[in-house]
Amino acid sequence: MVTGDESRKATFECPQCGHVQSIEDFINLNLDATRAYKDCLGRYVTNFGCEFTVDSEAGLTDSVRIVVDRNGNEFKVFNFI
Ligand SMILES: [Zn+2]
Predict the structure, then answer these.
(1) How far is ligand 1, taken at its centre, from the CA of residue 74, in Å?
(2) 19 assigned to some structural domain
(3) What is the mean pLDDT of the chain?
(4) Within-domain flag for 1
(5) pTM of the full structure
(6) Which residue from 46, 64, 47 is spatially nearest to 55, judged by alpha carbons?
(7) Residue 54: inside a domain, yes or no?
(8) How far is the CA of 69 from the centre of ligand 1 (A)?
(9) Range of the domain at 37
């Protein structure tokens, strides 16, 4: 199968529970795809046991990356796999 959009296959690891999730996972669940590298999927599904988000005060760990966009804005994202 060729989707023509490899970025959907990019995967990110939750620094708290280690869950590996892809942008496609979020799209398939009709979630905001831009949260795939900011929120654990556990925030959106039940019985997951993890609700990690980089937006929380505790969100900065060694496993969270700081990236800077072209406008110089810093934001936190999950580690890329
Ligand atoms: Zn998690």
Answers:
(1) 22
(2) yes
(3) 87
(4) no
(5) 0.80
(6) 64
(7) yes
(8) 25
(9) 9-80
